[in-house]
Fold this protein.
Amino acid sequence: MKLAADTGYWTALEKLVAENRIIIERPKGSRHPRFPEMIYPLDYGFLDGTNSNDGAEADIWRGTLPGNAITGAVCTVDLVKRDSEVKILIGCTPDEIAVIDEFYNTGPYMKGLTIIR
């Protein structure tokens, strides 16, 4: 995990989160629809009305802290989908960020670089 300085990047992400509704499509404990062995350790979803590299909406992880403060981001590489994306961490505690980091970095097909705000 890396600690990032406060830059305009975080302000831009805050604007996206403030202006677009958070949709949780995979609640904590749910299984991935195509890979049932993959269980989501926190709420996972997207920002409605946004776009990402994969043609879908911008992905988010939602932690247990109140409000919608951005606590970090994860830059991911998925060797199965053959893509790379940024996942926004919203309201995640340090322990939750560690769990997300482990989620991306324990298997052979997905890797992530976690950036803590």
About this structure: The chain has a mean pLDDT of 92. Strands lie at 2-3, 22-26, 43-47, 58-62, 70-78, 83-90, 110-116.
